[in-house]
C-alpha cells in the first residue's frame, strides 16, 4: 500500500489548486473514496468534468487555459513537483521523486445533470494523510452513473469495488438510474454491449492494479458476485418507459420528454454516430437494434 499512499500524498498536496478552477467538478474514484465515502480504498487519479456546455472548440480552449493555470500555480507553490501537459489529451502528468499521478478532463462528457456539490475530504482521509481540502463534485447520480458505466465497460476491479459499496448502501435508486442512463447514452460502447456485457477475466488486474489499495478484503469471488448482481439489478430496474426510451434513442427518434438529455454533447455525439452507422451500414444498424430489443424484451 505504501506506493499508493505516496500517490495519495501527492494528490492531496495539489488538489486545492485544482479546486480553485470552478469550471471543473471532480468525478470518479477519488470523489467517491476520499469525499463521499470514508476512504474504503485509496484512489490516485484526479478525474474532472468540465461544467459549462459550450461548443466543442470553446470548451477545449477553456479547459486548456484552466489546466495551464493549475500547472502554473502548482509549480510556483511546489518547485520540486514536475508537470507534463499533454494538450491534445487535456491531461496533466504530475510527479515528484516518490510518485506519479494524473489530472484528466473528460473531453466528451461535459455538463452536469444538477448543480455540483461542495464536499470536504473525509474524516479518515484527513486523519491518515494530515490534509484538508474542499472541492466541487459532480452530483451523486452522475457520479455513480459514470462509475456504473465504467464497471460495465472496462470491468476494472476498482470500479466493481466502488459499485459494491453503492449497492450495499444507497442502492440503485431512481436518481442513480437517471445518472446511469445519461452516461449509458454518453458511452462509446454500444448500449446493448453495456446492458449485456461480455465478461472479462480480471484476475491479473485484481492482483496487479487493485491489491494494496484497500485494507478490506475484496476477492475475485466478490468481484464476480458484484458484477453479476450489478448487471441483474440494472436490467430488472428498467421500466417499460426506460426501455421505450432506449429503443427510441437507438432508432434515432429520442423522446426527450422522458429524460431530458438533449443538451449534453456526449449524447448528441452518440446520436450522430448512430446516424452515420445507419447511413453507411444499415445492416449493422438494424442488427444492433434487434440485439437491443432482444435484451430489453
TrEMBL record:
One of its GO terms (molecular function) is transferase activity. Gene3D superfamilies: JHP933, nucleotidyltransferase-like core domain. It comes from the Bacteria. Keywords: Transferase. InterPro entries: AbiEii. It holds the Pfam family AbiEii. This is Nucleotidyltransferase. It comes from Polaribacter filamentus.
Amino acid at each position: 500500500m505504501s506506493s499508493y499512499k505516496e500517490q495519495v500524498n501527492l494528490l492531496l498536496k495539489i488538489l486545492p489548486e485544482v479546486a480553485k478552477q470552478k469550471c471543473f467538478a471532480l468525478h470518479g474514484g477519488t470523489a467517491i473514496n476520499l469525499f463521499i465515502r470514508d476512504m474504503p480504498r485509496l484512489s490516485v487519479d484526479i478525474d474532472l468534468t468540465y461544467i459549462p456546455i459550450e461548443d466543442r472548440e470553446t470548451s477545449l480552449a477553456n479547459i486548456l487555459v484552466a489546466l495551464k493555470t493549475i500547472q502554473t500555480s502548482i509549480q510556483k507553490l511546489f518547485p520540486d513537483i514536475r508537470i507534463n501537459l499533454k494538450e491534445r489529451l487535456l491531461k496533466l502528468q504530475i510527479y515528484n521523486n516518490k510518485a506519479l499521478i494524473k489530472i484528466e478532463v473528460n473531453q466528451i462528457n461535459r455538463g452536469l445533470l444538477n448543480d455540483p456539490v461542495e464536499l470536504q475530504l473525509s474524516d479518515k482521509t484527513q486523519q491518515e494523510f494530515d490534509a484538508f481540502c474542499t472541492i466541487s463534485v459532480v452530483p451523486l447520480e452522475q457520479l455513480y452513473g459514470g462509475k456504473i458505466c465504467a464497471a460495465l465497460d472496462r470491468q476494472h476491479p476498482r470500479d466493481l469495488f466502488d459499485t459494491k459499496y453503492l449497492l450495499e448502501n444507497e442502492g440503485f435508486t431512481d436518481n442513480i438510474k437517471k445518472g446511469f442512463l445519461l452516461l449509458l447514452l454518453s458511452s462509446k460502447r454500444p448500449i446493448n454491449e453495456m446492458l449485456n456485457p461480455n465478461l472479462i477475466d480480471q484476475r491479473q488486474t485484481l492482483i496487479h492494479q487493485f491489491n494494496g489499495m484497500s485494507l478490506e478484503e475484496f476477492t475475485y469471488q466478490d468481484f464476480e458476485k458484484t458484477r453479476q448482481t450489478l448487471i441483474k439489478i440494472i436490467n430488472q430496474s428498467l421500466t417499460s418507459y426506460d426501455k421505450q426510451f432506449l429503443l427510441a434513442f437507438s432508432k434515432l427518434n429520442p423522446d426527450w420528454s422522458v429524460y431530458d438529455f438533449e443538451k449534453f454533447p456526449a449524447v448528441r455525439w452518440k446520436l450522430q454516430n448512430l446516424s452515420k452507422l445507419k447511413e453507411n451500414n444499415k445492416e449493422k444498424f438494424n442488427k444492433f437494434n434487434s440485439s437491443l430489443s432482444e435484451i430489453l424484451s
